[in-house]
What we know:
Blueprint: H1 8-23, H2 29-36, H3 40-46, H4 50-61, H5 64-72, H6 77-91, H7 95-107, H8 112-134, H9 139-157, H10 165-175, H11 181-187
Helix pairs in contact: 1-2, 1-4, 1-7, 4-7, 5-6, 5-8, 6-8, 6-10, 8-9, 9-10
Amino acid sequence: MIRRGGNVKETIIKAAMKVFARHGFRAPVGLIAMEAGVSKGLVFWHFRSKRELIVEVARRALPTDVIKGCISKGLEGEELLKCVGMNYLSKYGSKEMRALLINTFALANINSVVEGEVLRVCGKLLNTIASKVYGNLGDESIVKVRAFFGALLCYVLNPPEGTSQEDYLRILLKLFKPYTQTDMHSVS
C-alpha cells in the first residue's frame, strides 16, 4: 500500500505506465490498482475513466517533455539537437518507455486525443526545433529534423551492434549539423 501523504494520482500513473508497457492499453484497471497498491475505486476517484488514464500515460510516453525541456533552456543550433538527442536516447533507453511509445503510436490510430498529441509533437514542436536549429521552416529544415527524430527512434528500437549511444549521436549531429555563416560564404 502507498504511504499517507504520498501523491496517489502520480502513484497510479506510474503503475499504469508499468502495466500498460507490459500488457498494452487493454490491460484491466484492476491490474493497475494492484500495481499501485490502491483500490480500483481510488483509481476512478482520480481518473473519471480508463480512457482518461490512458491519455495521460500516452502523453507522458511521447517526447514532448524532452523537446520542451531543451527548448526552455534557450538552446539553438547544434546544442539544441544535442540536448534533444541525449535526452531522447535516455528517456527511451528503458524497455518500458519504448513499449509505451510504440503503444502510443498505435493508439493514435483509434484515439483522437492521442492522435492530436502525436500530431502536435510531429508538427508544431518539430517545427519549433527546425526553426531554432536551422533558422527557418523551409522544407529542407523540416525534413532534416524529422529525419533526425526517425534516426533516434530507430536507434532505441534496434541499436546498431557495436555503436554506443554517444557515438551514434555524435554521427547524427555531424549529419544534421546546421549551416553556419562561414559555411554559407564558402558555398558562394
